[in-house]
Amino acid sequence: MGENRGRTYGSHILINLATRQLSYFEGSRLMNTYPVGVGKPSTPTPTGKYSIIEKIMNPGGVLGTRWMGLSIPGGRYGIHGTNNPSSIGGYVSNGCIRMFNEDVEELFAKVEIGTPVEIIPGTGSQPENIQAGAQDGAKRHTVLPGESLWEIARRYGKSLESIIAANNMANPDLIYPGQTIIIPS
Question: Can you give the residue ranges of the L,D-TPase catalytic domain (predicted)?
Fold first, then answer.
């Protein structure tokens, strides 16, 4: 994957499983956010950092009008269209990321083989943590474009460590516009 390293600063895709949204970035600029359907609890979408390894036009059937295969080991996962648009927004797939056909066609035209794709659980993928936080009188903050976790902590008078712990963040440097952050009481 080293030869694709330079592209990290180009376009990339972020998929938030909690919000069921796919965000397309060019550099650090958010270009578009799309609703998606993701893996159901019995066949969840794998989280991690991957890349687009193949692009197929008109795969047909349940894959809709476009298929973009991902470098996820141990299975055949991709971002694709659907012949069941009502499934978008739900936890419905066998692990793939489903998009409306018109959305996947727009995205397909923009991405290249090697485009980085990061799939995150997102805040809210562990409902018991959010419910517990809400019962403790915790507040919620929706991340705005350009905001850092440090700025959010300072605004609420909380330590960075307490916010990282409350949100169970593996990498606190990666926060995204639209993400919900729990502010501990």
Answer: 11-120
